[in-house]
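Quick one, T. Sequence first:
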Amino acid sequence: MPTAFVLINTELGTEMNVLKDVKKVNGVEEAFAVYGTYDIVVRVRADTMERLKETVSSHIRKVNNVRATLTLMSSEDTK
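Structure tokens:
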């Protein structure tokens, strides 16, 4: 099953609202607020690579107050 980790930068002061909204996106398995260069780290899984890409580009990136993302696609499923 394709997996990706999405690192999210939010508008200043909106981290918790973005986290709450991102957790509602279908395919998001885990999401955490973090300290450092990025504000939120998300683990996403989908049935196909195409659906995974759609989840990231059409749903996560369009959440209000998401400023930028960096997506790390897994190279293979390790299970």
